Amino acid sequence: QVPLVESGGGLVLPGGSLRLSCAPAPGANIYAVFGMFWYRQTPTKTREFVASITNDYSTNYARFVEGRFTVSRDSASNTAYLQMNSLEPEDTAVYYCKFRDYADQDWWGQGTQVTVSS
Q1: DSSP H/E element including 90
Q2: What percent of the chain has pLDDT over 70?
Q3: pLDDT of 99 higher than 80
């Protein structure tokens, strides 16, 4: 049972764009969400923080994506988004979303593959 579902990953050319989405799985008992986070991981690296957005719509970005990626949220539907522009081969990774509720409970998705290649 994976509480969150990511979508939007795939194969894209260098310089291209993708938009990732993340929302609770059907039947998941996830209600008010304090923070929505994006991470990424490759087989040779630890899981890295990418971007986050909190309930007041404050955002934070990792240095390596700042200016290229934009995180947003739709609190009414508890959906997180990650708009990824100017993608580079180094962005190739599995991207994960995480929600944190007001009781500091973390909920994770299964990840979605992003491949940037010509």
Answers
A1: none
A2: 99
A3: yes
Task: Calculate what percentage of the chain has a pLDDT beyond 90.
Answer: 90
Q: Which two tokens stand for residue 93?
A: 């990774």
pLDDT of 1 above 80: no
From CA 5, how far away is CA 75, in angstroms rounded? 16
Residue 114 one-letter amino acid: V
CA gap 43, 69 in Å, rounded: 22
d(CA 12, CA 88): 9
Nearest residue to 38 (alpha-carbon basis) of 112, 115, 116: 112
Identify the CA nearest to 40 among candidates 52, 28, 48, 31.
48
